[in-house]
Design a protein that fits this description.
Layout lengths: L2 H9 L18 H13 L7 E5 L5 H8 L4 E6 L2 H18 L5 E5 L11 E4 L10 H12 L2 E7 L3 H10 L2 E14 L9 E13 L6
Parallel strand pairs: 1-2, 1-4, 2-3, 4-5
Antiparallel strand pairs: 5-7, 6-7
The structure holds S-adenosyl-L-homocysteine.
The site of S-adenosyl-L-homocysteine (SAH) has 21 residues, from helix 3.
Length: 210
């Protein structure tokens, strides 16, 4: 598997049929997903790991992790319709690659998520509809794992860094993307609007020393 092959494979997955504005259902672009997953893979954060994809939606991030050798992925989302598509996406990549992946689909509010995993990889709501959403996802991710990959608006960079630091996590890596917001929602006018989005790798301080 190469980064390019991963991006192509991920571009063929299905996305939200009727995106729900109140849940901020914007899928991660396949090139950007491949980029962050590839970086995670090179850092040894994917192969053989148990990974949670919180707010998984149609599952692009978790599917990429499975394709790169994750041991098991938990797909968590509040919307059962999205998880139904995620299940179909999993069946599709299994069929195309003649493999069986170990995956679990959990429908429910992320606030109730209660598992210990090696790594969280997530593209949560950016907080446009519910301003507390990004912090709530981060809080849950920190309860679940020592290493977190997460996307947020680049404009919140200082806030995310200091929120992480005050919870004992440091930003070990930061990447910035021109993020396409596809015009799937009624309140958008331009066909593709781009916003600056950051990708963070957060690590619990001292976690790798024990
Ligand atoms: N991670 C996916 C989807 C991103 S959109 C991707 O990268 O493509 C954000 C997702 O968060 C949506 O699927 C939405 O249903 C989910 N979500 C929003 N609020 C949630 C909550 N409180 N608990 C769990 N999932 C939630």
């Amino acid at each position: 598997m190469t980064k390019k092959a991963l991006a192509i494979e991920l571009s063929r997955l299905r996305v939200f049929e009727h995106p729900k504005t109140n849940l901020e259902q914007y899928p991660t672009d396949s090139e950007i997903a491949a980029e962050i997953l590839w970086n995670a893979y090179m850092k040894g954060d994917i192969k053989g790991k148990v990974i949670a994809d919180l707010g998984a939606g149609t599952g692009i991030l978790g599917m990429g992790a499975l394709l790169l050798g994750a041991k098991r992925v938990i797909f968590e989302d509040i919307d059962p319709d999205a998880l139904k598509v995620a299940r179909e996406n999993k069946a599709l990549i299994e069929q195309e690659n003649s493999v069986r992946f170990d995956a679990d689909f959990q429908a429910g509010d992320v606030i109730e998520f209660d598992e210990d995993v090696d790594i969280v990889i997530m593209n949560p709501p950016f907080g446009a509809q519910n301003t507390k959403a990004d912090t709530m996802f981060l809080e849950k991710a920190m309860q679940a794992a020592d290493v977190i990959y997460t996307f947020h608006k680049a404009s919140t960079k200082e806030y995310i860094n200091s929120y992480a630091a005050s919870n004992g996590y440091e930003t070990t890596d930061y990447w910035e993307f021109d993020w396409p917001l596809k015009n799937t929602m009624a309140h958008h006018t331009k066909r593709i609007e781009r916003i600056k989005v950051g990708g963070w790798r957060l690590e619990k301080k001292g976690a790798l020393e024990d």
